[in-house]
Amino acid sequence: MRSGSSNNPHSSLIPHRSSIILGVDPGLQRTGWGVISVSGNQLSFVAAGIIATKPDAPSTTRLKTLHDGLQEVILAHRPAAAAMEETFVNKNSASSLKLGQARGALLLTLALHDLAVAEYAANLVKKSVVGTGHAEKEQIAAMVRVLLPGCRNLEAGADAMDALAVAITHAHHAKQL
């Protein structure tokens, strides 16, 4: 989403009055995605899911699976903006490297579709949705279901709920920029 008439450098990250936001919870094995609609202060659930890769597949195949899966979501829902959870650095450097590669593939996919991407720390996402930066996944999922009643019966799992939480965070914070 681009805006040429604003002096705000973050204007491309701010959702329009009625827009679609894509939230992404990156992972090499399971990437969660969630799409919400924002109209004023009203948030509505659109869709959510998981892009799963095969652990025994070569890393290039896994990264292509992430790209293809996210591209399919973008083409199906045409988001105006995207938000992604920032990398959580593990003590295990190999795990951190794999997560970084997954994030890179996902960020490139978003860039190829000219989507502005806001990045949010996991603690900020938790605080924005639950009210505390150290919330558990179950607490996040429960609050997402309260904020987005349309996803109450969603069976996509914690990664999809986390992605919806990232999208909700963007809807709340982008307005404040």
Describe this structure in words.
The protein is of the alpha/beta class and 177 residues long. It has a single domain (11-176), classed as Nucleotidyltransferase, domain 5, CATH 3.30.420. The protein contains 5 helices and 5 strands, in the order E-E-E-H-E-H-E-H-H-H. The chain has helices at residues 59-77, 93-112, 122-129, 137-147, 158-173; strands at residues 18-25, 30-39, 42-52, 81-85, 117-120. The radius of gyration is 15 Å and the shape is globular.
| Structural class by SSE content | alpha/beta
Radius of gyration (CA) equals: 15 Å
* pLDDT < 50 runs, ≥5 residues: 1-12
Number of strands: 5
Principal-axis shape equals: globular
Keywords, separated by commas or semicolons:
5-stranded mixed sheet, alpha/beta, globular, 21% strand, single chain, 5 helices, disordered N terminus, 177 residues, Nucleotidyltransferase, domain 5, 42% helix, 5 strands
Itemize the secondary structure elements and their pairings:
Layout: E1 18-25, E2 30-39, E3 42-52, H1 59-77, E4 81-85, H2 93-112, E5 117-120, H3 122-129, H4 137-147, H5 158-173
Parallel strand pairs: 1-4, 4-5
Antiparallel strand pairs: 1-2, 2-3
Helix pairs in contact: 1-2, 3-5, 4-5
